[in-house]
Design a protein that fits this description.
globular; 28 strands; four-stranded antiparallel beta sheet; mainly beta
């Protein structure tokens, strides 16, 4: 029997208390043991250190916002707060940590910033070492100012990539001991609203999910310069779907063969096959998320399953994944979690 432990970041509305843990039994093909393990305000995004010792969460504290770190008890899944760094203003919407657990970066949607932090050996986070303020706007009504939605490390961790929905930009920053300096900016299609990015394991391609136009942008990536080049735009929802839908999360399999993209409104996960020679995508299928407003999803460590989170209907969905075709089959859809946003598994 193989049991994997995971965590869910939530909006603390209604009954939600903060961060929840859960277990996935891959033999029984079942999610269970959902419980609150840390009480904090709006930990909408979490990330876990490579050694599974520390969980990082965005946090709201009154009129302040920032990042908190927690020690993970690998036996019980319980979390113990180690540190919290908050400043005046809205809280971030995304947090990433490097492989050596030495640097953390956050993206702040409301402030339009990227912030870098240095991490101590015990997992405590120091005050931010670098704040990059984005400028500009876009043609869409929600692009009145910068809205940074993602910041994370490139595969070789020489750079940090920021994705800004408000100004239609993917910005590459050089990072050195917590110091950020701009290296390159890619301006994507006006009004598309880029939200999240994932890298192909070969390091040559990356895929951006757009929120406003509900598309995936395939990019080539130069690891030496940090420069991205557009390859393809492909719709993540059917052409005849005219109701409100907004792109959410995007993830790729470790073999680089399939990309999965979430659609809030269409309430689906779009499955794409990767052409490994060109980096371009071809649609395989759309799969219902059996709920409303799928905010995020995660592949389990075996990549035989996917767990998705429906924010507005308050449920997790478990899919079996066919590794040959990429197709998803719903196994379980009644796992209750209040206002779930982000799903993360402990690393195998």
């Amino acid at each position: 029997m193989t049991i994997f432990n995971g965590y869910i970041g939530t909006y603390t509305k209604g009954d939600s208390k903060g961060i929840y843990s859960f277990t996935l039994d891959t033999e029984a093909k079942q999610i269970s043991n959902v419980k609150a393990v840390a009480e904090l305000n709006n930990p909408t995004y979490v990330n876990i250190s490579n050694d599974n010792k520390v969980l990082y969460a965005v946090v709201k504290e009154g009129d302040k916002g920032g990042v908190a770190s927690y020690a993970i008890n690998n036996q019980t899944g319980e979390l113990t707060e180690l540190s919290r760094q908050v400043t005046e203003g809205a809280s971030p919407c995304h947090v990433s940590v490097d492989k050596n657990n030495q640097q953390v970066v956050t993206a702040n949607y409301h402030r339009g910033t990227v912030e870098a932090y240095l991490v101590n050996e015990d997992g405590t986070v120091n005050r931010s070492t670098s704040i990059m303020q984005h400028e500009g706007q876009g043609p869409h009504e929600r692009q009145e100012k910068p809205h940074t939605h993602f910041s994370g490390f490139t595969p070789d961790e020489k750079f940090v990539v920021a994705v800004d929905l408000g100004i239609d930009k993917v910005i590459t920053y050089k990072i050195d001991n917590g110091a950020l300096t701009e290296a390159h900016t890619l301006l994507v299609k006006a009004g598309s609203g880029p939200r999240h990015i994932t890298f192909h394991p070969n390091g040559k391609y990356a895929y951006v999910m757009t929120e406003l136009s509900n598309e995936v942008i395939a990019l080539s990536y130069n690891a030496e310069t940090g420069i991205f080049t557009e390859l393809q735009y492909i719709a993540a929802i059917p052409e005849d779907f005219t109701e409100n839908s907004q792109g959410s999360a995007i993830h790729i399999t470790s073999d680089g063969r399939f990309v999965y993209a979430g659609n809030r409104g269409h309430n689906s996960i779009a499955v794409f096959r990767v052409n490994e020679e060109t980096g371009e995508l071809a649609l395989v299928e759309y799969t219902s998320t059996e709920g409303n407003w799928p905010r995020d999803f995660a592949l389990d460590p075996t990549e035989s399953f996917i767990v998705a989170s429906n924010e507005e209907s308050g449920n997790l969905v478990l899919y079996a994944r066919d590794k040959e075709t990429g197709r998803l089959s719903v196994i379980q859809s009644d796992v209750a979690v209040p206002y779930p946003v982000c799903v993360k598994f402990l690393h195998a």
